[in-house]
Design brief:
Order of helices and strands: HHHHHHHEHEEHHEE
Number of helices: 10
Distance between the termini: 73 Å
CATH superfamily of the largest domain: Histidine kinase-like ATPase, C-terminal domain
Radius of gyration: 35 Å
Length: 315
């Protein structure tokens, strides 16, 4: 009695498995390996039924045993053949994954290119539009200051001239940050050194840049992304790390560009940073941008012991 109940349960389970496999055939695009395995599962359920029949009727035992043996042979053939063909499924999935990765890379590259074009356009509009206007206002104020004025009016004019000068400096700085002309005209190393010098003067932090690039130029996307990443890393260190020194090593070795970045700040928890949104580019965005230019990144960090980031880009 117990064996009968066990066989009935086994038959039900195997029929359920076979029906589930058959229902998925369409989703596998009628892959031959999946069809063979589904048939094998169906025959296994049938074989269990044949095993149950002798327990119900002793007369047909020999015929049932013979049929069960043939079904066993068929199952073995179907499973073996299905396993051979199942490789096609994995190859198909691999092609899909490679296609997805290439598509992702193209989309991100297009986004970055469009973003940089808009940055350049906005920087040009800002410089060519507001710049001359403020310069004209400055000339008018200078003309007023040369005339005889009351003491109070002289102070007002002086304040106005100072504010216009600050506005001109701000426009120049914003325009340069949006689209650094040094990067376009002189390359990655010059742009990084210029940015590091500006930060060192204003933020009282020592930034040491070492490189063998000299005046070498690379693909526009590679230069832009590496420059933006370095600027973001430096900005993050200045804002959050309480560091005194930053080292940026930028070297070309054969067909690769290697960036080594480390500071002596308080460090950070990578999992915490990845799970939260921060101002600026952010670590997750840095990772995706580096990946878009065929690069890899490794982050070594420990709280209160600074951060060490190495990036390698294949040219």
């Amino acid at each position: 009695m117990v064996i009968k109940i066990a066989l009935v349960i086994a038959i039900v389970l195997q029929l359920f498995a076979a029906i589930t496999a058959i229902s998925l055939i369409k989703r596998t695009k009628y892959n031959i390996s999946w069809i063979l395995l589904s048939l094998a599962l169906l025959l296994m359920a049938g074989r269990r039924i044949f095993e149950l029949i002798p327990l119900m009727s002793k007369d047909e035992e020999s015929v049932v045993v013979t049929a069960g043996n043939w079904i066993g042979v068929a199952i073995s053939i179907l499973v073996a053949t299905g396993i051979i063909f199942i490789k096609k499924i994995f190859k198909y999935l691999e092609r899909i994954e490679n296609f997805r990765a290439r598509t992702e890379s193209r989309i991100l590259s297009t986004i970055i290119t469009t973003e940089e074009k808009e940055r350049r356009r906005f920087a040009k509009d800002l410089h060519d539009g507001l710049g001359p206007l403020l310069s004209s206002i400055k000339m008018s104020i200078s003309s007023l200051s040369q005339k005889k004025q009351k003491e109070q009016d002289i102070k007002v004019i002086g304040n106005m001239e100072e504010m216009v000068n600050e506005a001109l400096d701000s426009i120049k700085e914003i325009s340069n940050n949006l689209s650094p002309h040094i990067l376009d005209n002189f390359g990655l190393l010059s742009a990084v050194k210029s940015f590091a010098q500006q930060v060192s003067i204003s933020k009282a932090i020592d930034i040491d840049v070492n490189s063998n690039l000299k005046d070498k130029r690379f693909d526009r996307n590679v230069e832009v992304i590496l420059y933006r990443v370095i600027c973001e890393l430096i900005s993050n260190t200045v804002k959050h790390a309480s560091a005194k020194t930053i080292n940026v090593d930028l070297f070309q070795k054969e067909n690769k560009v290697n960036l080594y970045y480390f500071d002596d700040g308080i460090g950070f928890d990578l999992d915490e940073v990845m799970s939260k949104e921060y101002d600026g580019m952010g670590i997750p965005n840095i990772l995706s941008r580096i990946k878009s230019i065929n690069g890899t990144i490794n982050v070594e960090r420990e709280k209160n012991k600074g951060v060490h980031i190495s990036i390698e880009v294949k040219l």
